[in-house]
Write a structure and sequence with these properties.
The chain is of the alpha/beta class. About 35% of the residues lie in helices and about 25% in strands.
Length: about 270
Amino acid sequence: MFKDIENRLSENGNLIPAQRYDLIQKHLAAYKIATYASLAELLNVSESTVRRDLEWMEDQGILERTRGGAILNQHIRAEAEYIQRAQRFIEEKRSIGKAAATLLEPGDVVFMNSGTTTAQIIEHINGVPNVTVITNNTFPLTKSHDLDFELVVIGGTYLPLSKSIIGPFSADNINRLYATKCFIGVEGISLKYGCTVSTFPEAEIIRMMVEHTQEQVVMVADHTKWGAVSNHLIARIDQMHTLVTDDGFDVNARISLLGRSVDVIIASKTKSN
């Protein structure tokens, strides 16, 4: 299907703006990301024309400009079932969890939200003395073996969809606590829209975790979360210190985040047992 679009792009050098917008959007839908140079070549126009087109499309909320190009805004409407999310990119999530766990230091008190990627961090905490994990994630409660850290599960209302604990009682508990680090799984990361999730009760808890973290705010997300935008903001880009992601993460996106003083850690793939 996209071959037909590429043919149209190569055959038409005098497209009106509306046609260019449509073809740029279809190109991004297929490839997720594009550079100024590649779009200029495909559309047979100058890079300055591409920049103007992308600026207009960003103003309409269609895409987000990045360093040297653009990504398509992928709006997330609803949260998927936990079991469905757990099965997606499992190897990437496992490697991200392992890499994130290496950031723990002796004596750390850390916040972790619910989610399938933060669950992988919990799986890989090993040998770091005196670590305390404060979480609304019910995953640790399913472990049959002894945990290698002190676990504090905040009270509140159980949300089966995300296997998390949320609500006013949870928020009140977080409000009384401070952590040295937090590890937050997100549904979307965007330079323009920040870090987002799809449910308001979960977002409220995460925002408090971020605000009550004294040192390092760490986001954990596989490469598909880049450019995705959900309904509820949990942290601006300038509130992040570190992103732990997999080797599928876009290089230009990494450069853009580094330009915002966000350290990007690319996790090495792990072999499943």
